[in-house]
Amino acid sequence: MGLKKLGTWLKKNIKPIATVAAVVFPPLAPAIGAALGATGAAAAVVGSAALGAGASVIAGDKPADVLKSAAVGGAAAGVVNAVAPDFFTSSGLLGTSTAPAGATGEAATGLMGSTLPAGAGTGAAMADTSIFDKLAGYGSGVLDFAKANPSLAGSLLGALGGAVSAANAPKETTTTTSIDPAIKAEYLANLERAKSTAANLGPREFAQPGAMYTEAERNLYNLGMTPFGAADIMEFYNPFEEQVVQGALGDIERSRQMQDVADRARAVQARAFGGSRQGVQEALTNEAALRTAATTASGLRSAGFNTAANLGLSARPLNMSGLTTSLDLASRRDARRQAELDAMRNAPLERLAITGGALGLQPANTGGTTSQPLYTSTAGSALSGGLTGAYIGSLLQPKPV
Amino acid sequence: MATAQEVAQTKQMVKESILEEGINPNTLIQLGAMAQAVLQDTSKYPQFLQAVVDSGLAEEADFTGDIDYQIVGVFVAVGVMVKQMMASGELGA
C-alpha cells in the first residue's frame, strides 16, 4: 500500500529527503521501528532500514539499487564486507526467477559462488564461535523476522553485520619508534661537546679604542667645545697687511711732499713765499694728505679683518668634518679588531653547529619497510554474508500458490 | 549517516523546488503531521495516502498491501524541514 505514481515534486525530492530524514527528525527512525513492532534499541535499526537510505522502487530506482541500499543497511549500517555491491547486479541473482529448492543456505551457496555449507548462518558464524554463541539465541528470531518482513530483512541484516564490523574495528593504534645505536652515540657525543663548549664559553671581549680613535675623538670634542673667536680669525690674518698699509701711507706722504714742493714753487713765483697765503695752502695740502692716509689705512685693515673672519668661519666646519672622517676610520679599525675577538670566541660554537646540523640530516630512506597491523572482522563479514544469503535464498524460494 | 552539510543542501533543494512548483508549504506541514499520526496509528495510512494524492503531490495510490514507511518517513521529514524553514524566514507562509 503506497503511492503508485508520484508527482514531479515528490519524484524529484523523495530520495534526498529519505537520505537525511533520520537526521532532520531523530525520533523518526525509532517511531517507524516501533510502528513495525520493534522495541528498544532494535526500533531505531528497524526504522532506519525501513527508511531505506534513499532508495525506493516507487522513486524509480532499479530493484538492484533497492537491494544495494538495503544491504548497506540504511543510516545504521556500515558496508557489509561479505557482500560486494556489484553482487546484486549479477544475472544469477536478479535475472533468474527460479531458485534452487531447499534450505536458504543452499540458495546462498549457489548465488554467491562460495562454499558456505547448508544453513548459512551457522556455517558463516563458525569463523568466530564467541560471536556465534552470542547470536545463537537470536539467529532463529532474525530469520523469522526476515520471513515475516521480507522487505526489511535485507537492510536489517546488513545493519547487524555492520554493527558487528564496527564493534571489531580497531580502537587504538600503536606506533613504535626506534633510533639507530650509532646515531644515538653521535647524538650523545654532540651533547657532551655542547656541554663542554658551554662551560668554556667566556664572556664576550670588547676591543679597546685605538690611539687613532682616541686622538680624533679628543680633537673633535675640543673643537666642538671651543667657541668661535679672535684666535680663529687671527689664524687667517694676512701677514703682509702691515706692509701693505705702510706702503700705502708712504705713497700718500710722498704725494704730499711733492704737492708741498709745488705749492712753494708757486709761492716763490708769486713773491708770496713765507706769506700767510702760502701758510694756508700748506695747511690745506697737509690736511688732505692726512685724511687720505687715514681713510686708506682703515679701509685696508677693515678688509683684512673681514677676510680673516670669513675664512675662520669657513674653516670651522671643515675642521670638524676632517676630524669626523678620522674618527670613522679609527672606528673601522677598532671594528675589525672586535670581529677578530668575536671570531676567536665563536669558533667552538661554529664547530658545534656543524656537528649538530649533521645529526639533524635525514638519511636516505632506501630499503626501508613499513608494516601496518591489519584488523579484520571475520565474524561481521561471515555473519552479514551468511544472513544476507539466507535472506536472498528465502526470497528465491518457490512461493505456495 | 547524513552530514549537516547534506541536510542543508537537501533543505535548499526542497525550498527551491517548492518555489518552482508553487507548492503551498502549509500543505506539506499538514501532510507531515498526518504522516506522524500514521506512525501512532497505522489505520490512518489510507487517509494519509488519499491526502497526498488530493494535494497533487502524487497522481495515484495503491491501497492494498503493506505500509510504505519510507513514504511516511519522507513526509514527516518534509514537514519538519518546512516548519524549520518557515520559522527561520527562509520560506514564506
Radius of gyration of chain B over all CA atoms, rounded: 14 Å
Query: Helical content of chain A, roughly?
Result: 55-70%
Biggest sheet of chain A: strands, sense, closure?
none
Q: What portion of the residues of chain A fall into strands of 2 or more residues?
A: under 5%
Oligomeric state, counting identical vs distinct chains: heterodimer
Biggest sheet overview of chain B:
none
* Secondary-structure-derived class of chain A: mainly alpha
Share of residues in strands of chain B:
5-15%
How would you explain this protein's 3D organization?
- The complex is a heterodimer of chains A (401) and B (93).
- Chain A is elongated.
- Chain A has two domains: 8-169 and 379-396, no CATH class; 181-359, no CATH class.
- With 401 residues, chain A is mainly alpha-helical.
- Chain A has helices at residues 8-24, 28-35, 41-51, 63-71, 91-94, 104-112, 120-125, 129-148, 150-167, 181-200, 211-225, 230-234, 241-269, 276-359, 378-396; one strand spanning 2-6.
- Chain B is mainly α.
- Chain B has a domain at 25-87.
- The longest helix of chain B is centred in the C-terminal third of the chain and has 19 residues, at 69-87.
- Chain B is globular, with a radius of gyration of 14 Å.
- The interface between A and B is large, with 38 and 46 residues.
- Strand 1 of chain A pairs antiparallel with strand 1 of chain B, so a sheet runs across the interface.
